[in-house]
Amino acid sequence: MKEKRFLRLSLSRGNFFAAGAVLLASAVFFILEWPLAFGKNTAGQQGVCWWYVLAFSGLSAGAAGACFLEFSLPGAARQGIAWLMILLLPLGSFVAVDTINGTKLWQFSGRRWFANYLCYLLVFALAYALTRRPWAAVAIGGAASLTFGIANYFVVQFRGQPILPWDFTSFGTALTVSGGYEYVPTRKMAVAVLCYLCTVVLCIKIAPQDTPHASRRFHIAERLAAMSISVLLAITLFPLNGLSYLDISVWAWNQKGSSELIGVAASFFANAQYMTVDVPEGYSNRAMTNLSQKLDRIPSPAPLGQPGEAPTVIAIMNESMTDFGSFGTLEFSQDNMPNIHKLQNSGDIIWGTAYSSVYGGNTCNSEYEFLTGNSMAFLPSGSKPYQQYIDAPQQSLAHILKSRGYHTVAIHPGDRKAWERIDAYPHLGFDEFMDATIFDVPRSFEHRLTSDRSCYEQLIYEYEYWRALGDTPLFLFNVTIQNHGGYEDENYETTVQVEGREGRWPRAEQYLSLTKKSDEAIQYLLDYFEDIDEPVVVLFFGDHWPKLEDGFNQAVLKGYNVFTDMYRVPFFIWANYPLEGQEIEAVSLNYLSGLLLRAADIEGTPYTNYLEQLRKDIPVVTDIGVMDSLGDFYVSGGYKPPAVSKKLREYSILQYNNSFDDSRRSKSLFYLEEPYAMRLNK
Fold this sequence. Notes:
By secondary structure, the protein is an alpha/beta fold.
């Protein structure tokens, strides 16, 4: 009798086809991404990156060769090997994902390794429970892990922080804005994908397609066992907060740093525990009664302007606008913001430094803070209020102005579904929402995006249209898009360079050139309203920093605090009537609507009056931390003096009552009239 061999080669047509597909795909990738095969050595000389070439060719050949292998194993042995692979491959996924993302993997404690392993094991166990096929579980679990790891790498590159659980609620927005970026795979990505491909091929060859001679009851037991493991892990990681016992905790103010120190998956899963908004400490009916009485006693703040009648109110949140020249650490070939700097030196405007809660992205959070006066400091880190919490009428600056007889219009020259604005804006009190598809003026473009100049021409069109209709005052809220990330347009003319380092940071120089256009555009708008007889007040502010080269950021922030100053954005309030000009050294975005109301001489609500009083003691309240009136900064989650903590607790109680406690909301504190559902006119 011929002895049956454990391993043999099978030169079947199907195996040849599979091997050919593997080699063809590898060759196409290698040719398309040929620059990966070259790099600089330790001496800075260009040459072949031999480790990558050898690893890539070896893994490609290994995956192709594995297609011809046939294993002769007993059914029980195959099943045992399959389960072993499902138990071990989560560890391989962890190593692959964190290697791609450059975490300090080999410095992790054993507990952190185990915590990350459990996160990936949850995914693999769930995949097996759904498919009951070892090879399918390996393929799905590995593909999900690598896709997550690669996506996380690019998200960090573009916005400076990793993927967070709330990002999946804005997946459509991510697709909308993703086209402006350049996606360049890394050597580690290529090697990780090939390792995954080899593993899947081997699993298909070794693991059984089905358990031989197994009963239906055994199949059900297998599914239940896998599902039980995944459910047990989910309960351990989330309701029981098991990650905290494994030395896993996140820094709300530095998510990127957290993921580098504790692992990409563990960081993501740890953040998932904060998807619900907790009731603030000390929240009760009595606390709200006491605060209501306190707010009723706060007088309306003195006006900062003298319009004489209800002015046209314009608020412009300018995409990725910040003033790098204000740091004084770098010199540019020309001033990229000469008109804004001239205004600041005139003494005729209210201006200063504002602090944002976000960096490199998540524009909607800056909108939320400005419009509502609420702070991201009291919401789960990384959350997106527009997607998660704005599902009913929510007090805002638009509501206040609408109750004063204003017609309220939001303008954003992008996709109206981005950040779910199409749903959020009506709840926030806007009568109209104009996106790029319904602009009345021709649009011009800067690096493929609607220019600030076009936005301001639309503002002027709206103003003239409503002025011709009658005496209804107008509130225009414009979110621009020109300076959005993706500063790799090779055809865009760079007009501003960093002196002495020309060409070193091309993305930064493209960004600086774009802000020069923004500066010219805002001056165009102000020049128009300067000659208008009716009163007009304009607030201009940035939403967050752009995500540029790390070397440029380090040069700009040399001597500064990277955890606070990289959230600085400029703001100013201008009017064509007398304003009480002043510089405000520090203010967070949640206070800007109150300042705008005072500049327009429009009375707000008890809540806005409270915020103006709070601003004197705690001028900055952000998701990153808070700054008191002495300029001392306290990071989120860290120590704060008792007096500061008490005021923040009051603020959090008011915000929670306003936003989340529908049944016990003290409406008189937040609304000038009963909130009601809005509808879009366009």
